[in-house]
Write a structure and sequence with these properties.
- This protein folds into two domains: 7-124, P-loop containing nucleotide triphosphate hydrolases (Rossmann fold, 3-Layer(aba) Sandwich); 130-394, no CATH class.
- It has 17 helices and 14 strands.
- The protein has helices spanning 7-16, 30-37, 49-57, 59-64, 81-91, 105-115, 130-133, 159-165, 169-174, 178-197, 203-214, 223-230, 234-246, 275-282, 287-292, 296-314, 359-367, and strands at residues 19-23, 42-45, 70-73, 98-102, 120-124, 151-152, 250-255, 269-272, 321-325, 331-338, 341-348, 376-379, 383-387, 390-394.
- The strands form two sheets. Strands 6-13-14-12-11-10-9-7-8 form a nine-stranded mixed beta sheet, with helices on both faces. The chain has a five-stranded parallel beta sheet with strand order 2-3-4-1-5, sandwiched between helices.
- Helix 8 (159-165) packs across helix 14 (275-282) and helix 12 packs across helix 13 (234-246).
- The longest helix is centred in the middle third of the chain and has 20 residues, at 178-197.
- The chain is globular, with a radius of gyration of 22 Å.
- The mean pLDDT is 90.
């Protein structure tokens, strides 16, 4: 089993809270993780029809069968159970009594926050990170802008192979063809489960909506444009995108609020969190095709943003990541907030470094009146070095 970076935070939470909830998309490895960490716990999957029926019909009797701590898997299937769990943990004030998992964050968290507030730690497990697959720690976001020695990397994997494959555990554990597996994942999870939740009768409409969103990954979210292209209402776009976000399939970077005497863009940027799934939705059918595709930059940017978000989630921290763009088109792809300090980061898929990669950072330093603020460029090449007070980092290092 590939060690998961969130393991330490998971163990700590179980020592401090009576209930720990682990959410994340289907097939992100939640069940494997909690069963490996809490080997002595009883385990019940509420996907099992018999166990689910017992839990729904007789929740008190269902919980009474466990004499010690228990893992309840896919607990969003039985939302009424939370009230009974609350009664047990209030009576027995002991940490680590229940480990709950759920893949439908949009159904689970509302119930958790209402019923188990103050009694429950909530952790988010994403598919593998690139660091986890390579058995390393990686660079903390707060240190991206630190000056670095010149290092030549020789990655064992081609960048576009990494992006095309994506990071869902089963693909890597079983050596599966990513397109076949992701195609089945799209049909079973996106089309069946999520379409049921948002009550969409026409599968083709929802399929078109998801693919239209994929085509906008890395760009500003324009709900009116999506509504028009998909032939649905603005209200439905807002609701469906909220479900994709709550399912950990997409994430948003919000524009940074600080105004450097310029009118700023206020719409968030949309990102798909797994580059392999993004490639599938875009109709990219090989890593070679990706390397020449018009969306190559957007896929690479989504990959870097996703890896950064995973680092924050695995540490149990808020994202504290933004982008910056003014009305004249000047932009910083990612701003990392580290206390009072802001670290501008540019993300470029090119494999050859160009001084033009620094234009956004140089402009941002000028208007923010911080000419030597730490900054970084993450690019598709294999060498890390420093150029004009900016850390230029290989994708492989990050």
């Amino acid at each position: 089993m590939i060690p998961r970076r969130i393991t330490g935070k998971l163990k700590q939470s179980a020592r401090n809270y009576p209930v720990v909830t682990v959410t994340g998309p289907r097939q992100s490895g939640k069940t494997t993780l909690v069963k490996s960490v809490f080997k002595q716990y009883d385990y019940v999957s509420l996907e099992n029809p018999e166990q689910r029926a017992l839990c729904l019909d007789d929740p008190i009797g269902f919980l009474r069968q466990f004499k010690g701590p228990v893992i309840l898997d896919e607990v969003q299937r039985t939302p009424d159970i939370f009230s009974y769990i609350q009664g047990i943990v209030d009576e027995k004030d002991k940490p680590g009594q229940f480990i709950l998992t759920g893949s439908q964050n949009f159904l689970l968290l509302e119930t958790v926050t209402q019923t188990l507030a103050g009694r429950c730690a909530v952790l988010h497990l994403h598919p593998f990170s690139f660091d986890e697959l390579n058995g390393r720690k990686g660079i903390e976001l707060s240190k991206l802008g630190n000056k670095c020695k010149r290092i030549e990397y020789s990655p064992s994997e081609n960048l576009f192979d990494v992006l095309f494959t994506g990071f869902y555990p089963r693909i890597h554990d079983k050596g599966l063809d990513p397109q076949d597996w992701l195609g089945n994942y799209f049909q079973t999870y996106l089309e069946r489960d999520l379409r049921t939740v948002v009550n969409v009768g026409d599968a083709e409409v929802f399929r078109r909506f998801v693919r239209l969103c994929a085509g906008r990954s890395g760009g500003l979210l324009n709900m009116s444009s999506i509504a028009s292209d998909c032939g649905i209402s603005h209200t439905n776009v807002r609701r469906w995108i909220s479900v994709l976000e709550s399912s950990f399939l997409v994430a948003f970077l919000r524009p940074h609020h600080r105004n450097f005497r310029k009118r700023l863009i206020k719409s968030p940027k949309l990102y798909f969190l797994d580059p392999g799934l993004l490639c599938y939705l875009l109709g990219i059918r090989s890593s070679e095709e990706l390397s020449l595709h018009s969306m190559r930059g957007a896929v690479f940017e989504s990959f870097i943003i996703s890896e950064s978000l995973k680092k924050r989630a695995d540490a149990g921290k808020e994202a504290d990541m933004y982008f910056w763009r003014d009305s004249a088109g000047h932009e910083i792809d990612m701003l990392v907030e580290d206390g009072e300090r802001l670290i501008p980061v540019e993300i470029k898929s090119g494999e050859t470094f160009s001084a033009d990669f620094l234009k956004g950072i140089q402009y941002w330093r000028k208007i923010s009146d911080k000419p030597k603020t730490p900054a970084a460029v993450i690019y598709g090449g294999g060498t890390s070095f420093v150029h004009k007070e900016t850390a230029v980092r290989s994708w492989f290092e990050v």
